[in-house]
Amino acid sequence: MAERGRTGRGRRGLAPWLVAVVALLLTITASGCSILTDGLAGYTWALTAITEQQPRIDHVVEPGNVGRYAIEFMNDGTATITADCNQVTATYTTTPGGGIEIVPGASTMAMCPDDSLAQPFVGALSLASSYNVHGNTLTMYLGNEGHLDFRLVE
Fold first, then answer.
1. DSSP category for residue 62
2. For the whole model, what pTM was predicted?
3. What domain count does the chain have?
4. 121 and 59: one domain?
């Protein structure tokens, strides 16, 4: 009888833990926390500022030009980059703790306007080493001590 009582208590003791774990996972998922996802997949981010140390670039994208530079992350590890008048395919990987690697691939080769940041933008994306999503903003930190600032495209 003692063994039967222990087995019964063990199962009853498991139920509250299981309920707590399921509730925690539902809360994390509903809050958009990036513990279970990278916080990037399924979203498009428009560039708002670019800062690089080598070569020195410090540019805030004017509100009317924000859509000229963007990146959309897919759930399968691919991304689509809008680099002014060109589209670029890419792959990306993230690591727990906010590490990121973006590898640009094939690109259209249209001639963009003289004021275009297409080449520096794609080049900076390939230097991204970490990122942070905070609400509707994304910051990618570059290996050359620069950073890219984005806002979520709604």
1. P
2. 0.74
3. 2
4. yes
In terms of residues, how long is the chain? 154
Residue 126 shares a structural domain with residue 89: yes
Tell whether 85 and 13 lie within a shared domain: no
pLDDT value for 55 = 65
- Give φ, ψ of 120 to 5 degrees: -60, -35
Element (H, E) at 52: strand 44-52
Q: What is the mean pLDDT of the chain?
A: 82
SS3 content of the chain, % helix, strand, coil (to 5): 30, 40, 30
Distance CA 120, CA 59 (A): 11
Question: Domain range for residue 10?
Answer: 1-31
pLDDT in tens, 12-24: 555 665 565 555 4
